[in-house]
């Protein structure tokens, strides 16, 4: 048997189903917003596990919560409830619009629960024809068959037909299209306040306010997918709090567990009570271990200090990226909120975001892409001013090499 010390990147190709194409190096240790690979090379982490590692790597708050709960109770099934999950539910209810929470293991599962609930609501209040779902082009809602169909990127769903029916995709930020699409037969509209995978594209306030108005008028459920924007990512606890718009259902995951798998669907009593015992379920969702970790993360993030730091680091990122752009003219636009930012490559570099991401890793920096033309930054919410500064220095060097090689 091969020892742990002999593990190499080649082993991925040998043993793993090829649905990913990982980097050539393997991270083995992290602390705060720094990561080290098998060779001991250090990286500053501007990727955050794709907006997951809200407190960075090995944060004492998360480690302590995990180890303390691990000594007590890991899993009991949903035949029983448990103390950590009830504490977490109370925190979410007390700090959002919601009255009730359903816990699962991922963002896709949270969106699955939300879409199923919306269909049940439609059936109960409007009959069998009120089952249509409106979503948006370039959106992303997960990888189950239902959520990948709800997502507005055909490349993720086209090979898995036949797909669930009754889902229409319209242009994001197009109020006229939304007004036309939302009818008496619409049971739900699902929208990301900022399209993350779709390029870090914020919704306009007018667009979200219009969706709220049209959903209320037609009796449709408004679902905010906050899997990527939630739990402090935008500088508010949830992005809907920046908009003046309150959804009927909100989904949360990623940063909620700080790296431990957990997802949540939040809604009001009115809609929650349309689900009955046995309508939906989960084996692992709401287990004590995940709930204890998520509760520690949530309570740490939900403070004025952390949320203000996110806003401060946002300004630092934007200033730094604009400085890089002054000397290189590589970006068309810098957009996003809080610590979810997208740097859009100019048209002459179309399709080359992945190449720039790989060059950045050579300079000891982890970044993301959001489609083929956008570099995405989603670091820990607690990343320091010094780490942002050093990371931007490394990114500037990567940009220069990228341009020299173009």
Provide keyphrases for this structure.
four-stranded mixed β-sheet; 38% helix; aminotransferase; Ac/SucOrn_transaminase_bac; alpha/beta; globular; Aspartate Aminotransferase, domain 1
Q: Which stretches of 5+ consecutive residues score pLDDT under 50?
A: none
Which CATH top level class of the largest domain fits?
Alpha Beta
Average residue pLDDT: 96
Q: Tell how many strands the DSSP assignment holds.
A: 17
Overall geometric form: globular
Could you say what the CATH topology of the largest domain is called? Answer: Aspartate Aminotransferase, domain 2
Keywords: Amino-acid biosynthesis, Aminotransferase, Arginine biosynthesis, Cytoplasm, Pyridoxal phosphate, Transferase
Catalytic activity: N(2)-acetyl-L-ornithine + 2-oxoglutarate = N-acetyl-L-glutamate 5-semialdehyde + L-glutamate
Pathway: Amino-acid biosynthesis; L-arginine biosynthesis; N(2)-acetyl-L-ornithine from L-glutamate: step 4/4
Pfam family, one: Aminotran_3
Task: Summarize the topology.
Layout: H1 10-15, E1 27-31, E2 34-37, E3 42-45, H2 48-51, H3 60-70, H4 83-95, E4 100-104, H5 107-126, E5 132-136, H6 145-150, E6 167-170, H7 175-181, E7 186-191, E8 194-195, E9 201-202, H8 205-218, E10 221-225, E11 249-252, E12 263-267, H9 269-272, H10 288-301, H11 304-328, E13 331-337, E14 340-345, H12 353-362, E15 365-366, E16 368-369, E17 374-377, H13 385-405
Parallel strand pairs: 3-15, 5-6, 5-7, 7-10, 10-11
Antiparallel strand pairs: 1-2, 2-3, 4-12, 8-9, 11-12, 13-14, 14-17, 16-17
Helix pairs in contact: 3-10, 4-10, 11-13, 12-13
Cofactor: pyridoxal 5'-phosphate
Binding site for N(2)-acetyl-L-ornithine: 143, 282
Subunit structure: Homodimer.
């Amino acid at each position: 048997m091969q020892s742990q010390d002999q593990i190499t990147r080649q082993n991925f190709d040998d043993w793993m189903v090829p649905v990913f194409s990982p980097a050539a190096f393997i991270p083995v240790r992290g602390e705060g917003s720094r990561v080290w690979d098998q060779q001991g090379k250090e990286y500053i982490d501007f990727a955050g596990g794709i907006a997951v590692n809200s407190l960075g790597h090995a944060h004492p708050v998360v480690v302590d919560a995990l180890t303390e709960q691990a000594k007590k109770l890991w899993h009991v099934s949903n035949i029983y409830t448990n103390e950590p999950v009830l504490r977490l539910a109370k925190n979410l209810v007390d700090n959002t619009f919601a009255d009730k929470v359903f816990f699962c293991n991922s963002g896709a599962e949270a969106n699955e629960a939300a879409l199923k609930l919306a269909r049940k609501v439609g059936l109960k209040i409007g009959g069998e024809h009120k089952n249509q779902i409106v979503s948006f082009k370039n959106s992303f809602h997960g990888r189950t068959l239902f959520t990948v169909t709800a997502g507005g990127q055909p490349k993720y769903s086209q090979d898995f037909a036949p797909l669930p029916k009754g889902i229409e995709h319209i242009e994001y930020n197009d109020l006229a299209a939304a007004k036309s699409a939302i009818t008496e037969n619409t049971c739900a509209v699902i929208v990301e306040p900022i399209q993350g995978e779709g390029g870090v594209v914020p919704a306009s306030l007018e667009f979200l306010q219009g969706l709220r108005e049209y959903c209320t008028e037609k009796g449709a459920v408004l679902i905010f997918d906050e899997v990527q924007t939630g739990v402090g990512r935008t500088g508010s606890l949830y992005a809907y709090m920046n908009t003046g718009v309150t959804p009927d259902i909100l989904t949360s995951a990623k940063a909620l567990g700080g790296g431990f798998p957990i997802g949540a669907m939040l809604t009001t009593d009115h809609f929650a009570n349309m689900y009955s015992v046995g309508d939906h379920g989960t084996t692992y969702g709401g287990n004590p271990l995940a709930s204890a970790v998520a509760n520690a993360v949530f309570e740490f993030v939900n403070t004025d200090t952390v949320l203000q730091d996110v806003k401060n680091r946002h300004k630092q990122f934007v200033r730094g990226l604009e400085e890089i752009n002054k000397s290189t003219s590589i970006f068309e636009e810098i957009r996003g909120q809080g610590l979810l930012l997208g740097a859009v490559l100019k048209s002459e570099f179309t399709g080359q975001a992945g190449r720039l991401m790989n060059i950045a890793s050579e300079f000891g920096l982890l970044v993301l892409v959001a489609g083929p033309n956008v570099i995405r930054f989603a670091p820990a919410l607690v990343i320091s001013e010094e780490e942002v500064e050093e990371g931007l220095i490394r990114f500037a060097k990567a940009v220069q090499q990228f341009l020299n090689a173009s």
